[in-house]
Write a structure and sequence with these properties.
Number of strands: 28
Strand content: 15-25%
Radius of gyration: 26 Å
């Protein structure tokens, strides 16, 4: 096996530091071969090893009576009763989606779906959290619009063709994402608890079987690309972006599920980031075994591929199986039925080493545990103030609004708050007939689980502006918002997955953001009893030295009984509108991160809204009880845009508006558009029942007014603040995104 003392330029090109290369030499007792260098480079990349975050991720709570599988496998699993579990996880495909938006997003969906069905679970739902640069940016606006259209098309193409509903998500536009969009995809599936499979290569002598699509040169070094900042040369990295085939993936799903039912499968893992390298090393490491692999047997669609290319290819729709010795033909028969390649490419060994051969020559021989789990762990410097360039104090008085109704129209037609129907109408969100609350219906997506007669609610949230102003408080607010969204549809939050999108961890001020966010995530998840079952960390989200906002995207699942979900839309005139949690508080500093400050004032300053987690938990308990007792005709939490935007959003679905009378000393802008958490508006025909529950939970319940036909009127102490027909607000809200995209074509 040829080895060499590689030069610093070669080592740096592989994303390795000199001391990391020295550690590799120490592990091997020699310089690595070219293939070994590539293997260590991808396995020790930030994307695969979490070397900058792992010591901090250990702080997260990961256990509860419902958690069947926590972090460390391809997806987490929780118990939903009746002998079933749900597997769920979120992953990012940020860098590829900038370079090639359609394929980057499409293969992000494909990758997370494989994470689910490699556990033995059938995928039931997808959600996506998207971040794009501003559409009105004079220089980057056209490119940002192209990325939006490509990403949405990629997600819809893959999900629709595969046959999984995309049931919800969120989309935000900020200048900091101009050169670095975020595409975070969440998937959830159902599995029998006694039919869970793991990515472990047990049983020396058992055959290692490659199944699925043939290997090509696409995606080589994709994991390494995702572990570096964007530079002016990043657009040249298209070969690092994988190409997906959702129809092949559908066949792969059915074949894998059927093969699992034969009882011949011992372990299984998808070939995602780092491809065959990751699956061989990780499966061996988890089981304490080794593998001997012959690359000549790997199905290939291109000629002349080198061992380096075969091992590092990230071609999509591929899985690695370990079967019981002597039962290979049972596995092959299943994959032949589905028209897929299946080939024995190696054998499990008891050596603890991954040995790779081509034409009889050993091209790599390395210890699996050291490659998969012994990457350097860094406690990077972070004892500095988190990165921010905007002030806490605005420096001048917040101007009084000349027209609050016009301000509301501006806000509901802003890219962040306008209808996202242009996006979700491209998705098939009802396929498989399980969706009871899809996009735009309620504060959380809901699917029924036919096997158990219950339902699962899902919510994704992430507010980069809040986290930029204060990473810890911003993260707690995201967890609270997610749990509140679930509670508003009547679900009990039970478990969390997370996607931590941050800049360059080698900068102490960025690492300070990440550590503060993780520690706050741990505190909030512990408090709200939603342990973390897995997730993803995406770092180096910077372009030419400019970082994105710290953007932890939190996905939380909740359990509920199956019934018609409570939506956000007012259903009929004459219902009383109550506000659980009170009017909240706000001041100049806490107003600086609001949607009003962004959309109307064009500014950013201050701190995020103040959160009292104990009070928040009581509000969540109260709204769950209100909903589950059937007292809510509609319910909607107050989030971005505050009270006025929540009332407007509640009026859009059915044209039923509201007549509101307030009694507050807050200035009008704070009263209408402040974003104090822990508040929910409820329309009800039984206000006394709602008040009774509020009293039981020790939270204020304020009567705001009544639902009325076709108009929205908000007064404070008889002074009109907002007066509008609902249709005059709905029309700009409904068409704004498509109009903004059209203007940039």
């Amino acid at each position: 096996m040829p080895t060499a003392a590689w030069g610093q330029d070669v080592i740096a090109t592989h994303g390795l530091k000199p001391d990391e290369y020295d550690k590799i030499v120490g592990i091997l007792g020699r310089d690595p071969s070219w293939t070994e260098l590539g293997i260590f480079a991808v396995m020790w990349s930030e994307h695969c090893s979490y070397k900058s975050s792992r010591i901090h991720l250990k702080k997260l709570p990961t256990r509860s009576k419902l958690v069947l599988q926590g972090p460390g496998e391809n997806a987490g699993i929780i118990d939903i009763g009746g002998g079933y579990g749900i597997a769920f996880k979120i992953e990012s495909h940020n860098h590829p989606s900038f370079i090639e938006p359609f394929q980057g997003a499409a293969t992000g969906v494909g990758g997370i779906l494989r994470d689910i069905f490699t556990m033995g679970a059938r995928p039931l739902a997808v959600l996506d959290a998207l971040r794009f640069g501003s559409l009105d940016d004079p220089e980057a606006g056209k490119r940002n619009a192209r990325i939006v259209e490509g990403v949405v098309s990629g997600i819809s193409h893959y999900g629709n063709c595969f046959g999984v509903p995309t049931v919800g998500g969120e989309t935000v536009f900020e200048p900091c994402y101009n050169g670095n969009p975020l595409v975070n995809v969440f998937a959830l599936g159902i599995v029998k608890q006694d039919e869970v499979f793991y990515g472990k290569a047990y049983g020396p002598g058992n055959p290692v079987i490659y199944v699925g699509a043939k290997t090509g040169r696409d995606g080589i070094h994709g994991a390494s690309m995702a572990s570096a900042e964007f530079t002016e040369e990043s657009a040249q990295k298209r070969p690092n972006v994988q190409v997906g085939d959702p129809f092949m993936e559908k066949l792969l799903l059915e074949a894998c599920i059927e093969a699992m039912k034969t009882g011949a499968i011992v372990g299984i893992q998808d070939m995602g980031a780092a491809g065959l390298t990751c699956s061989t090393c990780e499966m061996s490491s988890r089981a304490g075994t080794g593998m001997d692999v012959d690359l000549e047997l790997v199905p290939q669609r291109e000629t002349g591929m080198t061992p380096y290319e075969i091992m590092l290819s990230e071609s999509q729709e591929r899985m690695l199986l370990v079967a019981e010795k002597g039962r290979e033909e049972e596995v092959f028969a299943v994959f032949r039925k589905w028209g897929l390649d299946a080939a024995t490419v190696g054998v499990v060994t008891d050596t603890g080493r991954v040995v790779v051969r081509l034409h009889g020559e050993v091209v790599a021989d390395l210890p699996s545990r050291e490659a998969a789990d012994e990457a350097p762990l860094y406690d990077r410097p972070h004892n500095v103030a988190p990165y921010r360039t905007h002030p806490v104090d605005r420096g001048s008085a917040i101007p009084a609004s000349a027209d609050l109704t016009a301000d509301l129209r501006t806000m509901v037609s802003s890219a962040d708050l306008c209808s996202k129907s242009w996006i979700w109408e491209q998705y098939d969100y009802t396929v498989r007939t399980n969706t009871t609350a899809g996009p735009g219906v309620a504060d959380a997506a809901v699917i029924r689980i036919k096997e158990t007669g219950t339902s699962v609610a899902m919510s994704l949230d992430g507010n980069g502006r809040y986290c930029y102003l204060d990473p810890a408080e911003g993260t707690k607010l995201i967890v609270a918002e997610c749990c509140r969204n679930l509670s508003v549809v009547g679900a009990t939050p039970v478990a969390t997955t997370n996607n931590l999108n941050f800049g360059n961890p080698e900068r102490p001020e960025i690492m300070a953001q990440l550590v503060a966010s993780i520690e706050a995530l741990a505190e909030a998840c512990e408090f709200f009893e939603v342990p973390v079952t897995g997730g993803n960390v995406s770092l180096y989200n910077e372009t030419l030295g400019t970082p994105i906002f710290p953007t932890p995207v939190i996905g939380i699942v909740g359990l509920m009984k199956t019934e018609a979900p409570v939506g956000i839309g007012f259903r009929e005139a004459g219902h009383q509108i109550l506000l659980l949690g009170g009017l909240g508080t706000c001041d100049d500093v806490r107003f600086g991160g609001t949607a009003y400050a962004k959309a109307v004032l064009g500014d950013l300053w201050g701190l995020p809204p103040a959160l009292d987690m104990e009070f928040e938990k009581r509000v969540q308990g109260a709204i769950r009880e209100v909903v589950n007792q059937g007292l809510a005709a509609s319910a909607h939490d107050l989030g971005e845009g505050g009270l006025a935007v929540a009332l407007a959003e509640s009026s859009f679905p059915n044209g039923i508006g509201a007549s509101i009378d307030l009694d507050s000393d807050l200035r009008p802008e704070f009263l209408l558009f402040g974003e104090a958490p822990s508040r929910v508006i409820v329309a009800t025909a039984d206000p006394e029942g709602v008040r009774r529950i509020g009293n039981a939970f020790g939270i204020p319940v304020i009567q705001l007014g009544m639902t009325v036909q076709g108009k929205l009127e908000i007064r404070n102490r008889n002074l009109p603040l907002i007066v509008s027909d609902t249709e005059q607000l709905r029309q700009p809200w409904a068409g704004a995104l498509e109009e903004q995209l059209e203007a940039r074509r």
